[in-house]
C-alpha cells in the first residue's frame, strides 16, 4: 500500500483514485453555498415565476439534485456515493438582486460529500444563469464555497464567514 494513503498521487506520482476501503463508514454531511447576482427586476420575475422559461427555482433545484448524484461522473477521481440526502434551497434577496443557493448533501459512507454539495450549488447556479441570461446577460455567479462539513475522521468544520460574492 502507498505511504500516500489519502492523496490522489501514487508512489510514482501518477493520479489515482484514493483507496478508502479500510475506512469506517460514518454519517457525513456537507453544506455548500453560492450566490447569483442579477438585478432586482430579474429576482422579482424569478419570484413571480413570470420568466418565459418557467419556474426557474424548481428547475434549478432538480438540476442541483441531479448534479449531486452525478458528481463522480463530473469530477475526476471522485468516488461514486449513494447519497442519503440532497437538498437545494434558495433565498431570494430582491433588493440586492441576489439569489442565495444552499445545498446540503449527506451519506453513510467512508468518504465525505463536500464535492457533491459544491457540485449541486454550482449546477443550480448555472441553471439559473441559463434560464435568466436572455433577460440579464450580465448575471454573475459568485461565492461558491463549502460552508460546513461534519462526520468522518476530521469531524466538524464550519466556515466563520460566508462570502456572498
Can you put this structure into words, describing what you see?
The active site is at 130. Residues 17-152 form the Molybdopterin cofactor biosynthesis C (MoaC) domain. Pathway: Cofactor biosynthesis; molybdopterin biosynthesis. With 165 residues, this protein is of the alpha+beta class. The protein has one domain (26-151): Alpha-Beta Plaits (2-Layer Sandwich). It contains four helices and five strands. Strands 2-3-1-4-5 form a five-stranded antiparallel sheet. Strand 2 and strand 3 form a beta hairpin. Helix 2 (56-69) packs antiparallel against helix 4. The longest helix has 19 residues, at 114-132. The termini are far apart. Mean pLDDT is 88; it is low at 1-5.
Give a count of the beta strands, DSSP E runs of length 2 or more. 5
Q: State the low-pLDDT regions, or none.
A: 1-5
C-alpha-based Rg, rounded: 18 Å
Class by alpha and beta content? alpha+beta
- As for the CATH topology, it is Alpha-Beta Plaits
Task: State the helicity in percent bands.
Answer: 25-40%
The largest pleated sheet is described as: 5 strands, antiparallel
Strand content: 25-35%
Fourth-level CATH superfamily: Molybdopterin cofactor biosynthesis C (MoaC) domain
Instruction: Describe the strand arrangement of the main beta sheet, using strand numbers.
Output: 2-3-1-4-5
- For the record, give the distance between the C-alpha atoms at the N and C termini, rounded to a whole number: 42 Å
CATH architecture identity: 2-Layer Sandwich
Mean pLDDT: 88
Q: How many separate structural domains?
A: 1
What is the N-to-C succession of helices and strands? EHHHEEHEE
Number of helices: 4
CATH class call: Alpha Beta
Pathway: Cofactor biosynthesis; molybdopterin biosynthesis
Binding site for substrate: 77-79, 115-116
GO molecular function, one term: cyclic pyranopterin monophosphate synthase activity
Active site: 130
